[in-house]
Amino acid sequence: MRPSGRKLDELRSVFIETGVTKHAEGSCLIRMGDTHVLCTATIEDKAPPFLKNTGLGWVTAEYGMLPRATNSRTRREAAAGKQTGRTQEIQRLIGRALRAGVDRSALGERQIVIDCDVIQADGGTRCASITGGWVALRLAVNKLLKAGVIVSDPIIDHVAAVSCGIYAGQPVLDLDYVEDSSAGTDGNFILTGSKRLIEVQMSAEGATFSRAEMGELLDLADKGVEALVAAQKAAVA
Question: I need a labelling partner for 74 at 20 to 30 A (CA). Which of 88, 141, 155, 164 fits?
Fold first, then answer.
């Protein structure tokens, strides 16, 4: 039995509320159980300097966690004067993941910045950020299309992410903090809506895992991402 009472292949409850900020070109608040992330998309009219005169656009991301997103207060990274390695790794992951679902030539020489701010953390913050970040990106691109700034939709597929792991000897879907902190193996799976793999992060935290077990986790990720894509579609409909 999982601590939450969920079935082995059951996601936490997923809610995506759009249009939650006034100024951003795209925004949503995604709630996956007790993990809540605010995602906003900002359109900038020029691409980074390294893409000048290439005709290609760029999607990038920034990630942060509010001081009381967790049980005890975490000092703001701005107050410390630098980002942690964890923060840098996560925001690069979000950017890579979302770019995989975009035709950068159709986007043109502009940049869309996805900001993901964790309001409350209970495991899976990077996965929630990617899933919600895609919704914010979709909404921002819709504005470009509606205004006639671009004529071809640069978004080629949905992008969503979910965690899976081996907890108490059983493969489980969508780990919360209690499971994640004691799982023998855990991983993050990023897939497109057509179930093409973008990135897999897996590690043995307390016990090694077999190819067969990895296959079971991939099957769980397929199921989880299918449900998350359905939630994305409902949010932007």
Answer: 164
Q: Note the pTM of the prediction, 2 decimals.
A: 0.97
Q: Does 92 count as an annotated binding residue?
A: no
206 is in an annotated binding site: no
Identify the three-state secondary structure at position 54. coil
pLDDT, tens digit, for every residue of 20-40?
999 999 999 999 999 999 999
Q: Which two tokens stand for residue 108?
A: 């043109």
Q: Which amino acid is at 58?
A: W
Q: Which string of DSSP letters, residue by residue, matches 10-60?
A: -PPPEEEEE--SSSSSEEEEEEETTEEEEEEEEEESS--GGGTTS---EEE
Q: Is 6 annotated as a binding residue?
A: no
Q: H-helix or E-strand containing 145?
A: helix 125-147
Q: Confirm or deny that 124 is annotated as ligand binding.
A: yes
